[in-house]
Amino acid sequence: MRPVAAGSASRGCEHARDRGAEHAPIGASAFVYDCPAMTDATVLSHALDDLATPYRTDTCGDLRAGDAGREARLAGWVHRRRDHGHLIFLDLRDRHGITQVVVDAHESPEAHAVASRVRPEFVVTAAGVVARRLPGMENPALATGESELRARELQVLSEAKTPPFYINDPDAPIDESVRLRYRYLDIRREPMRDRLLLRSNLVRAIRDAHHRAGFVEIETPILIKSTPEGARDFIVPSRLQPGTVYALPQSPQQLKQLLMVAGMDRYFQIARCFRDEDLRGDRQPEFTQLDLEMSFVREQTVMDFVEAMAIEVSRTVVPDRPLQSVPFPRFTYEEALERFGSDKPDVRFGMELVDLAPALGADRAAGAGATGFRVFDDVLASGGRIKGIVAPGLGGATRREIDDLAETARRYGAKGLVHVSVDEDGVAHSSVAKFLGEERLRSLVVAAAAGPGDLLLIVADRPEVTADVLGRLRRDLGERLGLADPNVLAYCWVFRFPMYQWDAENVRWDATHNPFSGVVPEDEPLLVTASGDPYRPSPEDPAGRARAMQYDIALNGWELGGGSVRIHRRELLERSFALQGYSAERMHDLFGGILEAFDFGAPPHGGIALGIDRWAALLSRQTNIREVMAFPKTSSGADLMLDAPAAPDPAQYAELGLRFVGDREEMQAAWVAESHVPGPIGDDVLPTPVEDRGKESRPDDGPATHTSGPAS
RNA sequence: GGACCCGUGGUGUAGCGGCCCAACAUGCCAGCCUGUCACGCUGGAGAUCGCCGGUUCGAAUCCGGUCGGGUCCGCCA
Fold first, then answer.
1. Is residue A181 in some structural domain?
2. C1'-nearest nucleotide to the CA of A150
3. A459 CA, B58 C1': Å apart
4. Are residues A380 and A290 in the same domain?
5. Which of A101, A161, A499, A588 is within CB 3.0–4.6 Å of A90 for a Cys-Cys bond?
6. Nucleotide with C1' nearest the A411 CA
7. From residue A683, how far is each of A143, A293, A506, A509 by CA, in Å?
8. Are residues A357 and A325 in the same domain?
9. Does the nearest atom of strand B lie within 7 Å of A695's Cβ?
10. Across chain A, which distance is largest between two alpha carbons, in Å?
11. The CATH number of the domain where A31 resides is what?
12. A423 secondary structure, DSSP code
């Protein structure tokens, strides 16, 4: 069917273009279908397939040389205009592509008159005959470049002010705040358009894979109850019950577990999550997770499914990008830290951490004086680690560059950074050579496998500091030295996280991940305290050695997601919660709903959550999730387009029984002064004060978008 | 909460004590042009240099503050 334009100028144009061009009024188009007898089937196919409407028969990405000779009507934005006097070329753009429209004064004086006053970003519709371009006039840069539309008729559907930045130049650098202010124009540009289309493909591929695997897609509420979790909640005051609030979910964690109790077996959701924390390139206050949960599974089951799903999704969405390794490497937490200094390692390159203690003779005589270098000896004597990484080709680094690295290491928490540079002749040089002696220096170089022209960087500190600092340096240097192939997708798993970390300040064990995470079966007996009283945890408790059935998935050094097999037995859950410092009463207060549910027959279950924004960003080769979000917020949480947040209408306050009293600092000081400080165990009344937020355990799976990003 | 970077016609940059009532590119406006595709040519308009204060004979330029944007640390696990 082909639409026909009926009537033309019927109504004057209300919005004169600001540049004041003189022109005749443009008619609001009134179109009619020329096929009165559309069947249901044609209506459906028309609606689903064609995108054909009275305004257009084809999109701007459709026409090919083979269409030459037929009639077509296109609608879109004027991308560019090339005016040759009696001949005007219009590049007409929609999200599908660009098609050249030729307007010839001799063929259609009316259309030419319209084309003369058309400007970039005007919305127009053009009808005419599709023509094969003259030989030699094809444009190979365009998919439609062998054809063109010879306009017989041209109508302006909307005029446009001159846009604040170039829409027709995909490479033009534009200040991000301007892009955000006019995001709808930014999205018209090719890069943003392509990324949003990629993201749409990503989500579709995810849905396909899940539905095929028998998952049920279920939505969970956005207005829920505040739970004492890792991040600060956004809260929404209730009008019907003044003085109370809803919280926005940091993730659907508890709800998805309840769906398992409900027997839904395999659940997933593309879920919006909210966390009121400071923003980063990889963190927005609202972000999207792929949230899933499965019943009757073990760690392997979940990891295997997610891995297969991730492989399929990657190959569907970015078929040109190679997966570094299939199946994905799986590291224990311990191994990941040992080899990469990170629980989300970028495994696109080596540069692994090397234990240098043996090379220093530490195995022969541990303790003071063993290495000849006081700093190293002290570290070894106190149970610390001496490890290093080799930066290839940095042996000739200047003093300044090395100082910068040392400064970076200190910023990351190291006390210092020892370096050994190997010159082109293979001779090692170091400021600590006089302490270690030539022999030890050489054995360090050998142990680290540093070659001529390399730089060996050494950190000696507590085990976790050594790993963390070297892990971050490894990441920084990998980036700087271009060791990571930007085209490759390197997924990997990290599992067997410790169950708890000791929280000295609050005298309790802190779940490293999720308070519901299960313990590996053989470590179940470890979930006890040294004192015997489950409510008196101490750093010496066996619980500190317990390992969790928890797994994270990383992609190119970003944490993509994390999850666990949960504790589904109430008795074990209570033991775990007691270690985490929750009294029976407080536990009931905070997790009453889910605990009660567990009394009604909870299946063994586990799941994971993956950050969709991060995934989309990585697949789009972006380092910032704002680039894959249609309408993101600035680092101060502002929406520059809608100007949010904004002060509410006083009437809205009144209706909610609220009043703004100002001055956050004063309020907080007063609040703390009222001794609202968390008591140790058994304080089941008061919430954690603001200052102590974050010491609480992690709310849920993955983090995904709300965790530290490319930086760890 | 802390550190650092940026803010100059619409956009991107240059200028970093007087040579600047600010330069270049592009965009914009007008005119010309029948095969261009970042069309071309000619002419024109457009910024008191984010804002406030200070130093100075003199400030886009130096200093302080403030606002906005970004990056990192903390935070978010």
1. no
2. B35
3. 55
4. no
5. A101
6. B73
7. 67, 32, 11, 16
8. no
9. yes
10. 97
11. 2.40.50.140
12. -
Question: Which amino acid would we find at residue A202?
Answer: L
Does any domain span residue A697?
no
- How many angstroms is C1' of B27 away from CA of A629? 28
Same domain, A213 and A85: no
Write out the residue range of the structural domain in which residue A234 sits.
193-339+497-636+703-712
SS3 of A596-618: the string is HHHCCCCCCEEEEEEEHHHHHHH
The token pair at A102 is 């030729």
| Position A173 in a domain | no
Judge if the beta carbon of A494 is closer than 7 A to nucleic acid strand B. no
Would the pLDDT of A391 be above 80? yes
Tens of pLDDT, residue by residue over A446-497, are: 999 999 999 999 999 999 999 999 999 999 999 888 899 999 999 999 999 9
Same domain, A232 and A152: no
Indicate yes or no: strand B within 7 A of the C-beta of A278: yes
* Chain segment A311-357, per-residue pLDDT in tens: 999 999 999 999 999 999 999 999 999 999 999 999 999 999 999 99
Domain limit, last residue, from A135, A158, A181: A158
Domain count, chain A: 3
Q: For residue A14, is it within any domain?
A: yes
- Indicate whether this model's pTM tops 0.90: no
In chain A, positions 514-533 with C-beta closer than 7 Å to nucleic chain B are: none
| ipTM of the shown complex | 0.94
pLDDT score of A197: 97
What is the C-alpha to C-alpha distance for residues A250 and A271, in angstroms, rounded to an integer? 10
Q: Report the CATH number that the domain containing residue A298 is assigned in CATH.
A: 3.30.930.10
Assign A126 to helix, strand or coil. strand
The reply to whether A87 Cβ lies less than 7 angstroms from strand B is yes
